[in-house]
Design brief:
Rossmann fold; 172 residues; globular; alpha/beta; single chain; 6 strands
């Protein structure tokens, strides 16, 4: 049994990746599915707990940009003895903005929401309590490249403009 935590900007491919890789084997929990709920965090916790209590693996398909947001999920998964797996969606803001512009209806998010998430997005770290971490990128032909999170150099390649967990944002 595992708790999979997606980490990434809106329109970085998280939900598409869920449908491609996990739909047949994992419960799907996404705050996007209960936008009108007055307490989405409570509802998310209830759904995760229900899946784990039933012995089912679950994917948390949200941006989960901060260590603090992920900590609560990791602790919850540990309570049920779940293996904790993180998937970091490595995607430039401009690519997400382009993909977001192709969305329609409730799937579309305002650009300001994407920028706000990008500002607080921190790469995951094994020190948070993950058992495994993977980096996911959308390739040119709309498939996903998934690579194990090997080390700082590998994890940083191509996206070092983002801050590391626990360090102040640099530059811009």
């Amino acid at each position: 049994m595992e708790l999979v935590i997606f980490i990434g900007l809106q329109a970085s491919g998280k939900s598409s990746f869920f449908h491609a890789r996990f739909e047949a084997t994992h419960a799907h929990v996404s705050k996007d599915l209960f936008r009108n709920n007055k307490n989405p965090n409570r509802r998310q916790k209830q759904l995760i707990e229900a899946a784990l209590q039933a012995g089912s693996s679950v994917v948390v398909d949200n941006t989960n940009p901060t260590v603090e947001e992920r900590r609560a999920l990791i602790l919850l998964g540990r309570e049920y003895g779940a293996r904790i797996v993180g998937y970091y969606f490595d995607c430039a803001v401009r690519e997400c903005l382009d993909r977001n512009r192709q969305r329609a209806g409730k799937a579309w998010v305002p650009d300001v929401a994407l920028y706000a998430t990008a500002k607080k997005l921190m790469r995951p770290s094994y020190s948070e309590g993950f058992d495994e971490i993977y980096r996911v990128r959308i390739t040119g032909n709309s498939t996903f490249e998934v690579r194990a999170w090997a080390d700082k150099i590998d994890a940083c390649r191509g996206s070092c403009d983002q801050k590391e967990p626990g360090t102040p944002e640099s530059g811009s």
